Amino acid sequence: MTAVSVRDLSFAWKRNEPATLEIPEWQVQNGDTLLLRGPSGSGKSTLLSLLAGINTPQKGELSLFDTPLSKLSGRQRDRFRADNIGYIFQQFNLLPYLSALDNALLACQFSTVRKERIAKAGDTPENSAHGMLKRLGLSESQIQQPAHSLSVGQQQRVAAARALLGAPPLLIADEPTSALDAEHRDTFIQLLLDLSAKNDTTVIFVTHDAALARYFNSHVELNNLNKAGVAV
Ligand SMILES: Nc1ncnc2c1ncn2[C@@H]1O[C@H](COP(=O)(O)OP(=O)(O)OP(=O)(O)O)[C@@H](O)[C@H]1O
Question: What range(s) does the ABC transporter domain occupy (predicted)?
Fold first, then answer.
């Protein structure tokens, strides 16, 4: 099965303006770990927003795990995203006054399917979130602390736990390491990839940082994929 399949996709932010993205063909295989690179403004976040079904392309096909997103209503797309995509945002998007544990648990609040996957593995969401946060290096007291009182590195781990809870088949991470020093960044990526591999989760990781390439089994330069703005 392919995790992502794109054909003749075109997306413009505004009608009658030149397209930001034109991608004739692109596939990501299930279980791949992919690094997506490109200069600032090249459309990386825009592409992620299409993959997550937050925005929809004006033309072309975009399927995730053989489900064409264009066939889903807005509400079905929201449900599909909650069930199937773990998303780590650049700014993490944690709720500041909720504890690390409750932030991680939000992933299950919006998805029965995630809860069911955990139940099938003989676990509870609370226990699974707690275990994930511990594996990501948070202490008992940090797990109970409100997110705003954690360091940037700790907040990033909470965002990773929330994204991975309930084993979504696709993890999307948008530059989540830009605030970290090299050592913390490398440890974090290694952990993220180890946890993803356990669930056979496909990973799409966006970064500017060429030094991270060695962690991923495929590499895509968005400017090679995207034909928008290129004369034919
Ligand atoms: N919400 C939006 N409304 C209108 N235009 C947008 C919006 N978001 C992005 N754009 C435009 O789309 C183009 C691509 O932006 P995008 O944020 O996808 O690039 P990026 O590669 O993720 O950049 P960076 O590495 O700086 O985050 C830019 O020209 C930007 O101005």
Answer: 4-232
Q: How far apart, in Å, are the Cα atoms of 20 and each of 4, 217, 220?
A: 19, 27, 17
Atom 14 of ligand 1, nearest CA residue: 43
DSSP 173: E
- Measure CA 120 to chain center: 23
For 188-204, how does the pLDDT look when each residue is reduced to its tens digit (9 = 90+)?
899 899 989 988 999 99
SS3 of residue 219 by DSSP: strand
Nearest alpha-carbon partner for 162 in 94, 67, 90, 91:
94
This prediction has a pTM of: 0.93
C-alpha of residue 70 to centroid of ligand 1, in Å: 22
Interface TM-score (ipTM) > 0.95: yes
Instruction: Report the nearest atom of ligand 1 relative to the CA of 49.
Output: 18
pLDDT tens-digit map of 42-88: 999 999 999 999 999 999 999 999 999 999 999 999 999 999 999 99
Q: How far apart are CA 140 and CA 98, in angstroms?
A: 15
What does the domain layout of the chain look like in residue ranges? Answer: 2-225
For residue 60, report the distance from its CA to the centre of ligand 1, in Å: 20
Amino acid found at 170: L
Residues touching ligand 1 (Cβ under 6 Å) are 13, 20, 38, 40-46
Q: How far is CA 179 from its chain centroid?
A: 17
Counting atoms of ligand 1 from 1, which one is nearest the CA of 43? 18
For domain 2-225, the CATH superfamily is P-loop containing nucleotide triphosphate hydrolases (3.40.50.300)
